Prior knowledge:
Pfam families: HTH_IclR (PF09339), IclR_C (PF01614). It contains nine helices and nine strands. With 255 residues, the chain is an alpha+beta fold.
Amino acid sequence: MTTLENAASVLKLFRRFGVTQGHPGLTFTEIVDALRLPKSTVSRLLSVMESEGLLERDSDSRCFHPGALLLSISGSYLAAPLVDRVTPVMLKLAERTGCMGYISVLSGRESVILRMFHGGQFTQVMTPPGSRIPAASSSGGRILLAQLSDEEVRERYSDEWHPGTPSSPQSCDDLCVRLAEVRKKGFSLACNETVFGISSLAVSISNQQFGDSMALCLSFLSQSEPPGYPQALLEALQTTAADLMAKYGAERNEL
């Protein structure tokens, strides 16, 4: 392998070994064993990476950590709000699938639209940024409510309940049943709820470092045949979420 490939292999070890803040770091022996290269080759490689700021060695333990150059670049890049980093990805997804795409967050009992992306399919139904939708009656709202316990959900709706359309939950008990299904499947589906003839799928991701969590949603014309959504559409949405997690350090919310 080339020097660049070997350097990349070293950096990948930090994820493989779960090196985070507070971790002792990687020892020289661990790196040699993992790369299966001569000690002299690894020693020269690590020395160059250290001098270029890709690695940093603890003066006491002699263990390796990500260097100042990597940290400064990634820190500046990841400091941007998660919604700004997700926006171009969702824009491409909407264009590729032809669906309307949305990014939303949970605010009390409402799902707030942060971004909207036009797909190629014709539809007169659009929900512009800033719009607030009852969370219980939307796929984006339910995927985020599903992160809460049933007790937290009931507390959130304890003072009032406003039934939505006939297709949406008609009570808090009904909502909790739907949320249990969302947690089991890992995604949320809403059919003819906010607007008749329109359905939507949603998954959620979060950035644990900054504490922001959001729903990624695709809206499309309702289908009469089960399961009520194109399987390819769900797979595209789930793949997008997985790619975002890998690229930006965001995490798929455990439901």
